[in-house]
Amino acid sequence: MATVLCVLYPDPTDGHPPTYARDSIPEIARYPGGETTPSPRGIDFVPGQLVGSVSGGLGLRPYLEKAGHRFVVTSDKEGPDSEFERLLPEADVVISQPFWPAYLDADRLAKARRLRLAVTAGVGSDHVDLGAAIERGITVAEVTYSNSLSVAEHAVMQILALVRDYLPAHDIVRAGGWNIADAVKRSYDIEGMEVGVVAAGRIGRAVLERLKPFGVRLAYFDKHRLPADVEKELGTTYHDDVRALTAAVDVLSIHAPLQPETYRLFDDELIGTMRRGSYIVNTARAAIVDRDAVVRALESGRLAGYAGDVWYPQPPPADHPWRSMPHEAMTPHMSGSSLSAQARYAAGTREILEAFFDGTPIREEYLIAAGGALVGAGAHAYTAAAGQASPGSTGR
Ligand code: NAD
Q: Which InterPro entries match (predicted)?
């Protein structure tokens, strides 16, 4: 019998939804490129219903309990007295989500003496100290691609919301007003602008693809260059250095993993090299930017807008400056947790658990670290080495 400790965000404030806005979600069998969406032996939830919060338990309870395992789901994750930290020494498997991360820094991993598998129900395992996990031979897996396109849609929405100044215009209507000049005085068309992405992996490339029909000029930086035919089809310019990209665009969307090279990359100096009136959208990880540098750049006008859905720590305190800074279009960390995405990452988590308990290989593309090294998707996206601390794992 194994103990599976699962940390999920709290239920809706008015309880688990008795009904839903839609009766079903589209069935998607493959991602672009051909990889199949998660295919566990079975699922015990209805796709399109809320499984990502505590009472939904990712739909895993019937499967795990029938197999004789102990399944504990909690949202209580902060500090030594939290249920998460109290149960950590008993856990064989930890499941966490980036939206409500159960930070697994080196100290917590040292307490997790039985831990063999840390699953990210989603994409992005920076809340786990990958260097310490490598040292301890813990397998880290995530549901690669499960919500990448969900995030790409959100990033495109936030780019348009900022450039067109959608939210202030909407607020005018809600307040009973009708001053068109107020609504348009910061509103532009994106057409003709130069739009860049930092990292053109699954999300960044999908953002480029989705923006192409808007008649923008596209550019990107990534440590792995896209194939020449893809660059040509997108009409995108490659910059081999982040500084060259930031200086050349009006809109920048960030899609790199959080790791030592990207930690606080966007500081006063780098943001200062951007054109006056640039926009940044960050749906990757908040700690890739310097929190207060963003506020200063919005106040000075260097940035005309900042949006995203990632914060640090998560959840952020009520007085976090990004809640009240000017020209923001922030959301809570929800882009990768739409009901559509939940169906995929819940099924993918089940697929990973089935492989783990059956003793069969976990899909290579789901693996971040295993056997004391970065492997699979992790070897492509991350750089952690044994013992090297991951900056996102402490939650600070
Ligand atoms: P991916 O692995 O497909 O792409 C990551 C890309 O980053 C790769 O192309 C890699 O070469 C590039 N990269 C790595 N280090 C880099 C560096 N130092 N500089 C430039 N490029 C670098 O992953 P993805 O599905 O595109 O997701 C990207 C990130 O988005 C995740 O790591 C995660 O942090 C974030 N994410 C956020 C949400 C959300 O809900 N907001 C959901 C999913 C993923």
A: D-isomer_2_OHA_DH_cat_dom, D-isomer_DH_NAD-bd, FDH_NAD-dep, NAD(P)-bd_dom_sf
